[in-house]
């Protein structure tokens, strides 16, 4: 089968590799669509980061570069390993792409398996990836999804789960006013979850194209350019001078962080969603005098079922966030190049490893 293989910084190759063997307790999946994630871009430009270097195998997967990329993907069940009896051939599924040590509690009540030692991701640290035509995945990480949800939209369940977990961490509820700093893919999808749960959403974003996308998709009630308006004052106008209840930092940019801190009401909650490649700082006096809660969030934990339910019930429409579809041969020239050099023109570019659906 064909797959996109990561060798190192700036080195991704489309190669023919062996199809995976589906072992006991595993599910064979024909990959339909795989999204290109910001993490994939970081690996290409700055890595290896999550991807293990050649000669340094990951302690759980036992694999090192080259590895097959891709962790945001949907597909169709093609085979069932011994002992898997609750799925059917032909069923639509998405994958929660974790690589986690044996013995870690990953049951339905766990709230911290995503923080366990040496955690990593399928499609970054081995065990196949969504940028290959086929994959074999342990049953625990395979989530069925209604065949009524198109498979291209289903590929966005993984990044949507990031937003779902961030909103859970915030404690946001219907009627709250939320401000999201940044309308990239994760900012937009976090806003989509907030809207689905009944919040009023304000987005602060420099790019006019991204602001318009937030308004056109109706995931934001208001979208402001911080160069043109005082975002903090606009939030206060919308809240009778009080400030936002919750804020979500989705840029890893210091001025955006500062705006969110100022825009929050006393005892508001700030959730830091983005991955920071540099040290950030806070105006500690504001944190203290407003009694703000600051919470980190990473990935998701038992978030996929709730996320899938929102989509199956029609509370979130993922179609508008798909802005491009390509094959494996266009991965760098049409996919990575667009997202690195013209990122405001795209939200989510999907790849069909087999070429089907293009």
Automatic annotation (TrEMBL):
Please indicate if the UniProt record lists Oxidoreductase as a keyword.
yes
Which cofactors go with this protein? Zn(2+)
* Segments forming domain Enoyl reductase (ER): 8-328
Listed A to Z, the keywords are: Metal-binding, Oxidoreductase, Zinc
- Cited SMART domains: PKS_ER
PANTHER family, sorted: GALACTITOL 1-PHOSPHATE 5-DEHYDROGENASE, SORBITOL DEHYDROGENASE
The family this protein is said to belong to: Belongs to the zinc-containing alcohol dehydrogenase family.
- Report the protein name in the record: 2,3-butanediol dehydrogenase
């Amino acid at each position: 089968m064909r797959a996109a293989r990561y060798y190192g910084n700036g080195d991704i190759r489309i190669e023919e590799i062996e199809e995976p063997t589906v072992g006991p307790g595993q599910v064979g999946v024909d990959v339909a669509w795989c999204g290109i994630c910001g993490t994939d871009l970081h690996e290409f430009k700055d890595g290896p980061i999550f991807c293990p270097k050649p000669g340094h195998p990951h302690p759980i997967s036992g694999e090192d570069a080259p590895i097959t990329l891709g962790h945001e993907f949907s597909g169709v069940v093609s085979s069932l390993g011994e002992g898997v009896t609750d799925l059917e051939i032909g069923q639509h599924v998405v994958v929660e792409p974790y690589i986690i040590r044996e013995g870690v509690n990953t049951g339905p009540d766990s709230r911290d398996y995503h923080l366990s030692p040496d955690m990593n991701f399928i499609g970054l640290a081995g065990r196949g990836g969504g940028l290959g035509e086929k994959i074999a995945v342990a049953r625990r990480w395979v989530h069925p999804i209604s065949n009524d949800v198109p498979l291209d939209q289903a590929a966005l369940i993984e990044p949507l789960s990031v937003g779902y977990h961030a909103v859970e961490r915030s404690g946001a509820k219907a009627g709250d006013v939320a401000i999201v700093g940044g309308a990239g893919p994760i900012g937009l999808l976090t806003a989509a979850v907030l809207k689905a749960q009944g919040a009023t959403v304000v987005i602060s974003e420099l790019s006019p194209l991204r602001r318009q996308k937030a308004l056109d998709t109706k995931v934001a009630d208001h979208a402001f350019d911080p160069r043109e308006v005082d975002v903090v004052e606009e939030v206060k106008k919308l809240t009778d001078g009080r400030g936002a209840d919750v804020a979500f930092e989705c840029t890893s940019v210091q001025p955006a962080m500062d705006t969110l801190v100022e825009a929050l009401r006393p005892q508001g909650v700030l959730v830091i969603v983005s991955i920071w490649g540099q040290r950030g700082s806070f105006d500690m006096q504001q944190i203290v005098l407003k009694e703000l809660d600051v919470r980190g969030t990473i990935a998701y934990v038992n978030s996929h079922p709730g996320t899938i339910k929102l989509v199956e019930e029609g509370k979130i429409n993922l179609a508008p966030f798909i802005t491009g579809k390509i094959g494996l041969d266009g991965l760098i020239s049409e996919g990575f190049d667009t997202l690195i050099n013209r990122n405001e023109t795209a939200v989510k570019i999907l790849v069909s490893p087999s070429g089907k659906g293009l």
